[in-house]
Amino acid sequence: MTADLFHISSPTTFNRICLETFEFQYEHIAVYRKYCDLIQKSPAHVNSYLEIPFLPIEFFKTHELIAQGKTQEVIFSSSGTTGSTTSKHLVASKKLYEESFFRAFKQFYGAVEDRVILALLPSYLEREGSSLIYMVDALIKESKRKESGFFLHNHQELYDTLSSLKQAGEKPILFGVTFGLLDFIEQHPIAYPDLTVIETGGMKGRRKEMIREEVHEILSTGFQVQKIHSEYGMTELLSQGYSKGDGIFYAPEWMKILIRDPNDPFTLLESGKSGAINVIDLANIYSCSFIATQDLGIQYPDTSFKVLGRFDNSDIRGCNLLVQ
């Protein structure tokens, strides 16, 4: 399965790998098998990825999801809120995660070696177990550029670095947590049209909640860039979707977004209708590739999607985008 995972060239191939993955996970992940049995869905009764059961994401908070015979090489955890139960993702293969995010980055932004990678992710750096920090740290190291790096609260240093890169005609990428970017741009506005700003979400009580359009308008003005990019990822996934503006996301070939009826979790909606987001992440081969999230969204006919918010009774996690 892993040999074909990142070489999906057709809907037929995608469907085949989904069915193979479902069969593997049904056999090797006890929690998922028990859930499938309860709703009477086994590989013998499934002929399309559209029929595969999606495990509620809450199971990552209450159970250890890892294939039988595998041990975790790293554990990613969600930030959560004070007193809340956090999700834990037991990752059996760091190599698989790395291949997933390196390939996705190259698909959307080109070779990482050609870019300076900057990161303003204070809330993630200040805790352990962030899959986002793991990814960005690997991108920084792979870029092999001395200017690449993390910036905690040292905004002046980030401003000086950006100014130097601008003067040199570079086109860097800046990953930033929402409140960090807003804090930075209030004190250090810089006109840098060739800068790519990737907002990763996350206000976490640091600032008043704002809708995405408002945040992006402030950031676009502050950096003088045409569009603000975004990343759609979470602790429970080993793949990410990216938006190059207007909140419209695209996923790599091994990741797919489906929309379910919020009132009937076993019914999928056609494109163009809003509902709850289901994610297929085939890189999650040793945990669970079929996840029913608590995010709300809409998928379009070209398979792009938009995140509209979260269910009211869900806790807001750091890696998720702003509630609208």
From TrEMBL:
Domain Acyl-protein synthetase LuxE: 13-322
SUPFAM superfamilies linked: Acetyl-CoA synthetase-like
Listed transmembrane segments: none
DNA repair in keyword set: no
Organism: Candidatus Sphingobacterium stercoripullorum
GO MF annotation list: long-chain fatty acid--protein ligase activity; transferase activity
Protein name stated in the entry: Acyl transferase
Stored Pfam families: LuxE
GO biological process: bioluminescence
Keyword terms, alphabetized: Transferase
